[in-house]
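Example for tutorial group B:
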């Protein structure tokens, strides 16, 4: 998760915002600030990924924070929160590089849209920094002598995009789940869950490299209904988010121009 802070001089507003964003999976709220001065000191020192900031706050007001952060080229993204719907506020905020302007009382959909925008900006920003690494090589259909385990492997190879469990494999092969799990590990040197995950991530890596399929569709194509869980697993195995993996791979594989003196 990326890190975010909230800056507002009314505690109930902060608590309301935290409650509204409680189950989202983009950002972790790591700080609450009730004055602009204390918030900006934190932003300058720790450079959180995102700050929700009220326009009218004591100390440095929201627009002053935005302007100063812009002048100092700080990387923090800003979403302005305000009880004022006046165009002038929004215009000034956006001029100073706020990525969004959300009105109180908060609309959950509006806030989530703003978070998704921030998330995408951060992902694209990170894409150019990350070298690509090799995706796991376990999609080849391995062969084992044990016919029961081979039946499991064949089924996984043909149905890895579906919901598969060790219970299902045990039912198919007519043995108990505990024995199926033990036998699978003994014959393949890997657990069932790790084997299935590696197959899915390998296939996802191929789709990210070789197609323009949207990432949420790639997740579905390899058996993940939850995009965020897919992204978490993909990063754990490859060291990259799906979007940074795609961007970095295409950047490295792009043809280089020959320069002649």
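The residue assignment follows.
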């Amino acid at each position: 998760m990326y890190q975010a802070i909230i800056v507002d001089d009314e505690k109930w507003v902060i608590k309301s915002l935290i409650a509204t964003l409680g189950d989202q999976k983009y950002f972790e709220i790591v700080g609450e600030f009730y004055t602009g001065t204390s918030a900006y000191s934190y932003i300058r020192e720790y450079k959180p990924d995102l700050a929700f900031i009220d326009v009218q706050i004591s100390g440095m007001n929201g627009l002053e924070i935005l302007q100063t952060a812009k002048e100092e080229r700080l990387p923090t993204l800003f979403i302005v929160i305000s009880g004022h719907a006046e165009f002038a506020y929004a215009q000034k905020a956006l001029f100073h590089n706020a990525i969004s302007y959300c009105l109180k009382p908060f609309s959950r959909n509006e806030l989530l849209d703003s978070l998704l925008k921030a998330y995408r900006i951060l992902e694209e920003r990170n894409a150019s920094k990350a070298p690509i690494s090799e995706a796991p090589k376990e999609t080849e259909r391995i062969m084992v002598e044990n016919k029961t385990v081979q039946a499991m492997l064949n089924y996984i190879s043909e149905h890895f995009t579906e919901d598969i469990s060790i219970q299902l494999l045990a039912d198919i092969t007519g043995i108990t789940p505990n024995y199926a799990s033990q036998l699978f590990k003994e014959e393949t040197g890997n657990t069932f869950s790790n084997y299935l995950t590696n197959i899915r991530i390998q296939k996802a890596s191929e789709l990210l490299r070789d197609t323009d399929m949207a990432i949420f569709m790639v997740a579905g194509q390899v058996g993940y209904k939850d995009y965020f869980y897919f992204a978490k697993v993909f990063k754990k195995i490859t060291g990259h988010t799906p979007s940074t993996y795609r961007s970095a791979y295409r950047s490295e594989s792009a043809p280089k121009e020959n320069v002649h003196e």
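The chain is about 55% helix and 10% strand. Compare this with the pattern of hydrophobic and polar residues in the output above.
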